[in-house]
Specification:
The structure holds three protein chains of three kinds. Chain B has helices at about 5-40, 45-55, 65-75, 85-115, 120-135, 135-150, 155-180, 185-195, 200-235, 240-250, 255-285. By secondary structure, chain B is mainly alpha-helical. Chain C has two domains: about 20-100 and about 210-325, Periplasmic binding protein-like II (D-Maltodextrin-Binding Protein, domain 2, 3-Layer(aba) Sandwich); about 105-200, D-Maltodextrin-Binding Protein, domain 2, CATH 3.40.190.10. The chains are: A mainly alpha, B mainly alpha, C alpha/beta.
């Protein structure tokens, strides 16, 4: 029980520290901005550890963070193999193909307002559908290896991307387009110099949504058949073997991969759309 | 864009999709017909193959009319209280979605209020809220189910709702933070000259100002909630609901059950979005914004 | 009328208060594999013993071992390899009864892949279920001396989903099937029996004990719980024997309990017929020789055995002795 009270004590102290930090001048610096959430995250882990130890929670129900960390250290090669299978072979190629295909389709129908009017409501509708339900069907079609995982990701990513790109291509203002016309810009020039850059905030918004969908798709698809490695495989197998420390280790890897993926897109966005009001600080 | 200008293009695109679907069904289901013929030592011509691809029991890709028939049978072929009725299962999924949606809205709004009020909340929690969305929820689903049964929560309704809420709170949170912050300095100053306290400023200015943002986020949130509910039903052994039906269809090699559930889910999603969109327009009208 | 209702209500309260609550966690979704328990419930066998039994169906992400560890169930249906592996992980499970006398697990192969004996498995792709069901397969392969990590000369293992598609789509040369379920899906799909080559674990001498009833060791120390389990096992076995004698009726009872409404009568009736062959001859008492064979098979896992040492106290005949005595 002492462990629990100790953890609660640490948590309260750290929270007080955070309150002080947020009110002080440090909070406006980059250091403060990074420090406060890090302290918060660390205290959540301490509280978790204290709860598990203090209440004597069985490790087959919820392992302590220290146990999970130890597992990560020991099982690094396995975790890497799973990561390579699910993220590098499944999620990322699927993400690129899906986003690329959406881009090509958006450009292809760009000149036909008729097709756009027809495709946009359907695309909007499909983007809101629970496409994960297709996972068992796609596994049946494309086999158990990474191809089917990539296919699920492609389908999941395609429609949100399409909707965002089409909306983005219409984002430039009439006056701007007229100006391009008066300069005698061709369709291609106008697209490249005006409309695509103007579409970038929308495209990045779509990419961010797609990045989380890609991970979900790749992992769910592994529940329906997979080789004997991969993150979805690991989670569903280790739960059955009561290897909960390994399950949480895989979840930690997934969270890290998801955050890095998302962070990378945000970085590129900042670099590409430096001119947009949302990037002014 | 008026309605008539969209109907024709949408129908055209739908027609194209149907045509592609039929072509794909013939192409994909033909392999099986040829394999069977080869095993039986016979040869078949395409004229014989095509009709056979349209009516298999376990097609690789069921043609649209087979799915439609199964869907019709599931929706209207029996009493809606029957366990064989898709309406019944859609209702189970709908219930889960609504619970998750409600939970997500409550959590999102409360968190947004805390974030607006306390700088320390903004700084420590907001980054983690973003990170939480990059964690694939499906990885957590089995954990959530065991943990909640450990806490003595009976049934699988609540864990399902938690998974749904996990996905749906985020759009609400982001929009509400934006909305509550949307009043500009001049408006805030004006309220101060009226001698309005913090509570009054919140109720009379910030909250009304955030409403358009709030309603805009609901559409995204309800779709996310439905996805969460289905994911919760799919691999975690929920016993009823569209997700569970998809799973059983997959397990017992009944692709038609799987496809019909998938389309039932699509119809449910469409209805939910329509209703939320209607609410949004009604609310806007009441608040004086031209729809 | 009102008085009558009150009386009925009081009576209902009284029975539910005096009835002993038992929660049974199944290994998989509602199907004829668990017919005995559903029959015992529907026919009132549990009620006769003064038990109030709740049957909890399982599913792909529900590990019965974890549910029982979390206190979500009192007794569970699981396979012995999974229970023994959990025991080694520190979850003290004890077998109290064994309704399934023999194993229904087999590998089903397409003859066209050229497989005629286990020696032909080398360099082929084999489909296996995981989630605790992989143990019998892994110990069989290590007895055959075949590596399962995909190295040349070994076998490539694929985690098959919940259906027989990998075989139909020729993604695997062989897949795991149960005599009572997946095998018939292959047949239903249009492949005839003479196009198939099957290897039953039972016939290969690598069978491990399947559906048994397990409880936590520390709870078994409580005499009241023991007594409840005696009643439970007695009623369950009565259910099983009834199901064996009336397979069609049992299948219909299962179907009524299927909440997804997606199961069909043909599947369940056939499954009941095949399951009856596996429960035939079992009184519920565990055959200790078979249990020891299971342990030996799991221990002989070569470099990566399923369990590392022979378990002690992993089964008890206390419950079945008392249940069968009367």
């Amino acid at each position: 029980m002492t462990a629990l009270w100790l953890a609660v004590g640490v948590w309260l102290a750290a929270w007080a520290l955070n309150v002080w930090l947020a009110g002080s001048r440090v909070s406006t610096t980059g250091l403060g901005r990074a420090l406060v959430p890090l302290i918060f995250g660390a205290t959540v882990l301490v509280l978790w550890e204290g709860l598990v130890r203090g209440l004597g929670v069985s490790p087959v129900i919820l392992p302590a963070p220290s146990v999970i960390a130890a597992k990560i250290a020991v099982e690094l090669p396995v975790l890497w193999q799973d990561f390579a299978q699910t993220i590098l072979k499944g999620a990322i190629p699927g993400f690129l193909i899906g986003a690329g295909a959406a881009f090509l389709v958006a450009i292809a129908i760009d000149r036909s307002p008729f097709l756009q009017r027809g495709l946009l409501p359907i695309g909007n509708f499909v983007a809101a559908l629970p496409i994960v339900g297709l996972a068992p069907i796609l596994v049946m079609w494309f086999g158990f290896d990474w191809q089917s995982k990539a296919a699920v990701v492609v389908v999941m990513v395609f429609f949100p991307m399409l909707v965002n790109i089409v909306a983005g291509l219409q984002a430039s203002e009439r006056m701007q387009r007229d100006l391009m016309a008066t300069w005698g810009a061709s369709y291609g020039q106008s697209l490249l110099k005006l409309r695509l850059p103007a579409a970038m905030p929308f495209i990045f918004n779509g990419l961010k949504i797609a990045s989380t969908l890609a991970l979900i798709g790749a992992i769910v698809a592994e529940f329906f058949g997979s080789p004997i490695y991969g993150m979805g495989f690991r989670i569903s197998t280790e739960v059955g073997r009561l290897g909960l420390d390994m399950v949480w280790a895989t979840i930690a890897v997934a969270a890290l991969a998801g955050s890095v993926f998302y962070g990378l897109i945000t970085l590129i966005e900042r670099w590409v759309t430096f001119w947009h009001p949302s990037q002014r600080h | 864009m008026n309605a008539r200008a969209t109907v024709l293009p949408v129908l055209t695109v739908l027609g194209m999709i149907l045509a592609l679907w039929y072509a794909a069904a013939v192409w994909m289901n033909a392999t099986w017909v040829f394999d069977q013929a080869e095993r039986a030592g016979a040869t078949v011509t395409w004229a014989e193959v095509i009709p056979q691809t349209m009516s298999q029991d376990r097609p690789l890709l069921p043609p649209p009319h087979q799915v439609a028939a199964e869907l019709w049978q599931g929706l209207f072929g029996q009493a809606i209280t029957s366990k064989r009725s898709l309406v019944y299962h859609a209702y189970v999924t709908f219930k889960g979605t609504m619970m998750g949606f409600g939970l997500g809205i409550a959590f999102g709004v409360l968190l947004a209020m805390a974030i607006i009020r306390f700088r320390v909340m903004d700084m420590s929690v907001m980054p983690w809220a973003i990170i939480s969305q990059t964690i694939p929820i499906v990885a957590l689903a089995p954990m959530i189910i065991t943990l909640s049964s450990q806490l003595g929560l009976q049934g699988r309704d609540l864990p399902k709702a938690i998974i749904a809420a996990y996905l749906s709170f985020f759009p609400v949170l982001v929009s509400m933070v934006k909305g509550l912050r949307s009043p500009d300095q001049m408006q805030l100053d004006l309220l101060r000259t009226y001698g309005a306290g913090e509570a009054a400023t919140f109720l009379k200015l910030r909250l009304p100002a955030s409403m358009p943002y709030f309603f805009a986020s609901l559409k995204v949130a309800v779709a996310a909630s439905l996805v969460g509910t289905i994911v919760g039903e799919l691999p975690t052994g929920a016993i009823e609901g569209l997700g569970a039906r998809m799973l059983i269809g997959s397990q017992f090699g009944e692709p038609l059950i799987m496809w019909a559930s998938l389309f039932a889910a699509a119809i449910l999603a469409g209805l939910l979005i329509l209703v939320v969109g209607f609410l949004e327009r009604a609310a806007r009208k009441r608040m004086g914004v031209p729809a | 009328m009102k008085k009558l209702m009150t009386a009925a209500f009081v009576a209902a309260m009284a029975t539910s208060a005096s009835a002993e609550d038992v929660k049974l966690q199944l290994k998989w979704v509602t199907q004829a594999q668990f017919a005995g328990y559903y029959v015992a419930q529907a026919k009132g066998f549990y009620e006769e013993e003064g038990l109030n039994v709740t049957i909890l169906p399982g599913g792909p992400d529900i590990a019965p071992t974890q549910v029982i560890a979390g206190g979500g169930a009192d007794v569970m249906v699981d396979w012995m390899p999974a229970a023994l592996a959990a025991r080694e992980k520190g979850l003290p499970l004890v077998n109290i009864a064994q309704p399934f006398a023999s194993s229904g697990m087999m590998l089903t192969c397409l003859k066209e892949t050229g497989i005629t004996s286990p020696a032909d498995f080398a360099d082929k792709t084999l489909g296996v279920w995981f989630f605790g069901n992989e143990y019998p397969f892994l110990s069989w392969m290590s007895q055959l001396g075949l590596a399962t990590d995909g190295s040349p000369g070994g076998v490539t293992v694929l985690k098959q989903g919940f259906n027989v598609d990998p075989l139909l789509q020729k993604q695997a040369a062989c897949i795991s099937t149960m005599t009572y379920n997946e095998y018939w899906q292959v047949i239903d799909a249009g492949i005839t029996e003479d196009q198939l080559m099957t290897f039953k674990y039972e016939e290969q001498g690598v069978a491990t004990l399947e559906d048994g009833l397990y409880v936590l060791e520390d709870r078994l120390a409580d005499p009241a719980f023991q007594e409840t389990m005696v009643k439970f096992v007695r009623a369950s076995m009565k259910g099983w024997k009834y199901a064996e004698a009336n397979p069609d009726e049992a299948a219909m009872i299962v179907l009524e309990n299927d909440q997804t409404g997606a199961q069909t009568e043909t599947h369940q009736k056939r499954m009941m017929g095949e399951v009856a062959k596996l429960t035939a001859g079992s009184t519920g008492a565990l055959d200790v020789a078979a249990a020891e064979r299971t342990v030996a098979s799991l221990l002989s896992g070569g470099s990566d055995p399923v369990i590392t040492k022979a378990p002690e106290g992993a089964w008890t005949s206390v419950i079945t002795d008392a249940a069968l005595a009367q």
